[in-house]
Specification:
Layout lengths: L15 H12 L4 E2 H10 L4 H13 L3 E5 L2 E4 L1 H10 L16 E5 L8 H13 L3 E4 L2 E5 L6 H11 L6 E5 L4 H8 L4 H21 L5 H20 L12 H28 L4
Antiparallel strand pairs: 1-3, 2-3, 4-6, 4-7, 5-6
Helix pairs in contact: 1-3, 2-3, 5-6, 8-9, 8-10, 9-10
Length: about 280
């Protein structure tokens, strides 16, 4: 399994499934051979068995498609998540000045028996910055440029249950508004963004000195973790959360990404099977 050379940073666990999705996402819309996935994945420390199992389960889950002759690519549902992951570069463009209004998702009618569907449903809301104000009601500031209708379509594509209702909220009472503004742990997010930016700078100074395989693993694990944090940012208005730390993190990640791509091009050439 891929790990970082820097012992001070404890990365989020990277699974074979996530690794294969990353490979297919970077290759989309072209296909990628199983041999290439196995060759590169094993060089990062994953076993062939775990990679083959990941491919099988991604196809079974309709995230990837086996197009024949050992070739794979993302399916339409996988492409929706690929686009979601790539939004980090343009996060600044998603927001508009906040009028003080809110958007709510009412999900009291969503069945709780299908745990997998419920996880997708709640993940979709969190990916768009919603938090649960009370049982059956999730809420976020109405400061996104997209209309309620467009946001509803995005949530559905990300897995929101069809029984959930998405609607604008313009007249919260004082108590509900006070509770709503405290749903996001902004102090923790800001501290995390500053720490991640520092980690990116530290990693960037040492990547070129590391062996190629180690540098590729470190840049993937750290870069993926940083992008995950950026994409999970709720895009709050400035009134609720200062944006300077996030903007600095995005800028630092953009510079890091350029170096990481150079390293990965060399790594893929070194470990891809020869025709």
């Amino acid at each position: 399994m891929a790990t970082l050379a820097n012992p001070r940073y404890v990365p989020r666990h990277l699974t074979a499934r996530e690794l294969v999705i990353d490979f297919l996402s970077n290759r989309y819309p072209r296909e990628m051979s199983a041999a290439e996935i196995l060759g590169v994945g094993t060089a990062l420390g994953f076993t062939e068995q775990s990679l083959r199992m990941a491919l099988t389960r991604l196809v079974e889950g309709a995230v990837a498609a086996n197009t024949g002759r050992g070739l794979y690519r993302l399916s339409p549902s996988g492409e929706a998540m690929r686009l979601e992951v790539r939004k980090w570069r343009n996060l600044d463009d998603l927001a508009k000045p906040w009028s003080g209004a809110w958007i709510g998702v009412f999900d009291a009618g969503v069945p709780r028996s299908d745990r997998a569907a419920l996880r997708r449903h709640e993940r979709a809301m969190r990916l768009r910055g919603f938090r649960e104000l009370q049982a059956g009601l999730w809420i976020r500031p109405a400061n996104l440029r997209d209309s309620v209708a467009a946001l509803r379509d995005q949530l559905r594509a990300l897995g929101l249950h069809p029984a959930a209702l998405v609607a604008g909220l313009n007249d919260l009472d004082d108590d509900s508004r006070a509770r709503a503004t405290g749903l996001w742990d902004t102090a923790a997010m800001l501290a995390t963004y500053r720490a991640l930016a520092d980690e990116l700078l530290a990693s960037q100074t040492r990547l070129e000195r590391l062996p190629l395989d180690t540098a590729a693993a470190e840049s993937m694990v750290l870069g993926r973790d940083v992008i995950r944090h950026i994409n999970l940012d709720p895009v709050l208005p400035e009134e609720l959360m200062p944006q300077r730390a996030l903007k600095n993190l995005i800028s630092t990640m953009s510079d890091y990404d350029q170096l990481a791509r150079q390293i990965w091009r060399r790594f893929m050439r070194a470990h891809s099977p020869r025709e």
